[in-house]
Amino acid sequence: MKKLTVLKSLIVGLTVFLGLSLTSCNDDRYEPTPVKLEDVNGNYKARLVTSQGSKFNEKIIEFKAKDTIITFKDFPVREIVKTIITDPVKADTALAHIGKVEYTLNYQSKINSGQNVVELSFEPKTLAFQIPVDGVVKNAVVKLVAKQKGFFIGYDWSLRFGLEAEKITVDGLELTPYQTIKYDVPISVKN
User: Fold this and answer.
1) Strand partners, 69
2) Measured between alpha carbons, how far is 189 from 186 in angstroms, rounded to an integer?
3) What does the longest C-alpha to C-alpha distance in the chain come to?
């Protein structure tokens, strides 16, 4: 009889313990860390999707965001050069001689606390660089635009944005016909 009472007491105690431990789980909620404007600052590695008409190219790029400026140490100009120089061999030779093209992209930021994101409104400048082809240096000026806002997402701490090369001018003459080149960064993560 004594063994049965002890066993019943242990079962009751165990049941009460499990019941109390499970009730604490009912109130667990995910509380995201609120984003701050300075959270955007940092070095990023990104997946860049470049498209022009039905042609798509994808590659990994790196850039830095600091104090309302995104800096690309090596802005992807391959599609721009191949649009200007239609001969693939000459375009590849020109790309090898151009090297790295640096570009800075200005932005203004604003916190959207309801979505836990930092919204980025871009102010693109023109991209200007020189293209050596057939012993002549051509001056290319690319008008870049940002038709949508960019976002720094508080959930996964990633940066997402897009740009378009709306117009290309070579030695003062606008390229026509011209098909817009789109640069989309669907996700980038801090290094």
Assistant:
1) 66, 106
2) 11
3) 106
Query: Tokens 């009730």 sit at which residue?
Result: 23
Question: How many angstroms separate the CA atoms of 167 and 32, rounded?
Answer: 41
Consecutive H or E run containing 66: strand 55-66
CA distance 164 to 52: 10
Tell me the per-residue pLDDT of 95-152, one tens digit each, with 9 for 90 and over. Answer: 999 989 999 999 999 999 899 999 999 999 999 999 999 999 999 999 999 999 999 9
As beta bridge partners, residue 169 has: 141, 174
Give the Å distances, CA to CA, from 54 to 175, 180, 188: 19, 11, 24
Give the contacts of 46 (CB within 8 A, at least 6 positions apart).
60, 61, 62, 63, 159, 185, 187, 188, 189
Neighbouring residues of 69: CB distance < 8 A, sequence distance ≥ 6: 104, 105, 106, 107
Task: Quote the percentage of the chain above a pLDDT of 70.
Answer: 86
Contact of 140 with 84, CB cutoff 8 Å: yes
How far is residue 112's CA from residue 162's CA, in Å, rounded to a whole number?
19
Q: What is the DSSP letter of 155?
A: T
Report which of 128, 132, 112 is spatially closest to residue 169, judged by C-alpha positions: 128
10 Å CB burial of residue 123 (0-12, 13-18, 19+) is: exposed
